[in-house]
Fold these 3 entries.
Entry 1:
Amino acid sequence: MQKKTKKKTTPKGKGEPTDKLVGFGTNVLTQINKMENPDIKLPIRALSNIYFDEKHKLIRLGDKISHRTYLNVAHTRKFMQTLLVASECKKIINQNVTTSIRDLYYALKHTIPGTNENTFEDQSESDPILEDLEAALNTLREALHLQADRKGYVAGPIMINDSGDRIDCSKMGSSGWAIPSNVEPEIIKFEKCTADFVLVVEKDAVWQRLNEDKFWRKQNCLILTGKGQPARGTRRLINRFHKELKLPVYVLTDADPWGYYIYSVIKQGSINLSFLSDRLGTPSAKFIGLTAQDVEKYGITKNVTIKLNQGDIKRTNEMLKYVWFKPKEWQKELRHMLEKGYKLELEALSSKGIKFISEKYLPEKISKKEFLP
């Protein structure tokens, strides 16, 4: 008879993130014991080390490395801060608790004994250090038991298991299911989903309209809002919906450079978080609207359009040069916007009727597959 093997369990506070942190600290300690100048190697998270992966359609981080050394006066403060953040992350994991990046900042801020120097003056110092650590360890902050602000909601035909609690997103009333910071498979599991696609909506007010009109039921879809530029958790959830559930992703934003940029971040990731593009970007996402060309197509009155300001014009001209906006459809849309000199918000569709967006505009675009790539 074959012997039953005892299933191995990972001790609390152990596992890959802890191992990476221990290795990170051990490397520094080894250099000190050898009387060497401690040197932390970090990927360069700057535009000079960013490239667009044409094959996978994602913004990626290159292989250039920077050195943060203790005995370099220009580096000493950040060197100390990097080790403080790494040490605190290990402590949090060992305690098996989760905390916010704001709490992390306060936990680490103190005056160095014998000096008037603070370890951190502001959270704007600790946040980039955390991102450096994520990039160096090739891990997510959520794996380090850290969470950012929650931002975004979902409604539609999906059953989600959230840390053991079963949530039916078709029975969440007017509020929807609030997307947590950590949506990794260990925390958020998809139990059942019958949706045909995901509609990502920039504006919370427009999402509320679609939810009230039960758009998700009529179109058999999931409706999701990131309430403006979506947080990491929201973008990761969109990524998982597509990869794991094989759902097409359609994005609905304002017809302006900032709405188009939100779409581009959802689609191929962002420059700032290029080291996470595989997990945050959804290259097959398509843009469903709003476009400046819809003004003529749907007979939207000009009095609800907004004149482009100098910032809009500058941003649009910059976007015309981006690789990911090179498809002819996007070139046509951006040039059309500049030519007409106006932009418009999603709410402008209400000038055609409060339910115009849910009863005509979106159903027509979806049925005709009128998307921008």
Note: The radius of gyration is 24 Å.
Entry 2:
Amino acid sequence: MSAELTGLHHVSALSAEIGASHAFYTEVLGLRPVIRTVNQDAPSMYHLFYGDGRGSPGSDMTVFDMPRAARERRGNRSITRTTFRVDGDAALRFWAERLRAEGVVHGGVRERDGRGWLEFDDDVGTALALVDDGGTGEAHPWEASPVASEHQIRGLGLVEITVPELQPTDEFLAGALGLRRERAYTPAESPRHRAHVYAMVEGGAHAEIHVRVDDALPPARYGSGGVHHFALRVPRLDEIGGWAERLTELGHAHSGVVDRHYFRSVYVREPNGVLIELATDGPGFDVDGPLDGERLSLPPLLEPRRAEIEANLRPLVVPAN
């Protein structure tokens, strides 16, 4: 098929402390609360979306509510770091100071794969980083953010996955998804393990998957602070069915096309077990009207159950400082 994936669409993390996660992404990172909805497969739990000023595809970090979940056991066959894009060394230095002032431990500004880089964890232990994108890719500041527009997070950057062997993942990313094998590098913090870069379209920090190979780690165990899946952008609604057909033809089991109301999706696990979603840019988070991160938004299949769902949701309590 001729359709191409154009970058990261969203990343979905897990949190046992949804109020703390909400405060971190809005108050510390300054992201816009785009949609407050529920896990469509378990509607007693929140699914919260945070992004740029427009809620653009490619900007959204989402968090699934997992009350009482144990902390993730980090390890292999998993998504091991999510990054956000900022523009320039001055922005990275701003964020190093801002995170320090907010009590967030970080690794300091350094270079990774030729780009400025700042690693830290969120309040529940999700492994994150800020990466200097050199001003490339889309950016739509949010006027109500506590962060000045020139330093705001511009959107999602690359994601890193860790697998025990490269070949099966390579064949899937390059063969099935059509990503380009671009380069490899050795992370300074892990000199024994190479990372391999797979790029979409023209590449750039918003359109890369970094595959770190480490055969010594035990498999990760899902939990709070882990990342459930990441999604890649399918620009047009009419292309998602073709992706499902392509995966079937190549022998990869998948979900079929799933209507998530805000976008259409196909879910598939690459051979080393990492869950990847292909998601369309449209209809978009404004399909029901202007963005409202405070009102509970429900897809049509759940709207008749609104009263029941609202009654069963625990209050979204932001912890006191």
Note: The longest helix spans residues 89-101.
Entry 3:
Amino acid sequence: MKQFSLKGFVLVLTLLLTACGGKNGQASHAVDVAVETTVGAAQIAPQYAEGFKVKYLNDGVRLVDIADPENESAQTYHFALVPRGTKPASVPSDYQVVETPVRHVICMTTLQLSNFIALDATSYVTGITSTRHLFNEKMNEQLKNGQTSKIGIEGNFDTEVIINANPDVIFISPFKRGGYDALTETGLPLVPHLGYKELTPLGQAEWVKFIGMFIGMEKEANELFDGIAHRYNALKEQTAKATERPVVLSGEIRGGNWYAVGGQSFLAQVFRDAGADYFLKDDTNSGGMNLDFETVYSKAANAQYWRIMNSFDGTYTYDALKRQPDVLLEDFVAVFHPEMASPEYKPTYYHLLK
């Protein structure tokens, strides 16, 4: 069995810059998303992301509905993004108003922060949680000069620091561990960012458009994502021609059991798009699960590849990698189907162990 390792394991969560649920608001005001609003902003129309949808009203209001892409929670969230300084009468009563573009935000996860980094918009970020795996030069400089503050960790946030960061919104991950009671008390809008729950690489990546709406960078977000999607789909189309599909084992031992993600997970989708079969491809779960050794052995004894994770060697930076899922896919294609890799290819995240 060949083994390949992931360099910079934490970034697998962030490289996937990343519509269902919710109420539609007042249909009488709705306009087609292909038409420019009165504020002249580019339109956001998610194609792959299942966790948010947008409806445009005639007066520049955007109704944003957010729901769990995995349908594990029935909770939905509704926000009305309105031009700053206006009070449109068309906003439905069950939508929380957020004036845009926002000026300052707090990010709770690395994936959220990666969207701002990809858009070269870190100046909006005045608060973050952990800096353990933060290598972006601009963000580290902002922390050093006080432009961005560390607000603590989940369950132990520093409310005073949060208030001093003066955010217009706080992006949260409501289905994770939580600890948001202190944030609720601030009265600030808590906006769920559910990119991490998307089941496809392009779905997760498309949440960069979600961030673009809040900071007035819809055009830039659309262009960025279009480039990612074009490269990813081109690689996917190429691997569809592969006559052999190697089997890939992925997971790790935890407390005597094997922990792996299900066959409908994000990772399984990447393997499929790279021309390989995940060893649990027929499983219907999307999240992680514990398996006994016998189950893993019976399904993966003849796997040709084993995906393992280790810490990176050398200097690992956000700027160098750009967190694009097309790069991740190209790494997998080069591993599974080296004959399809370009002669100039050099691995970014994954490489075969010698």
Note: The chain has a mean pLDDT of 82.
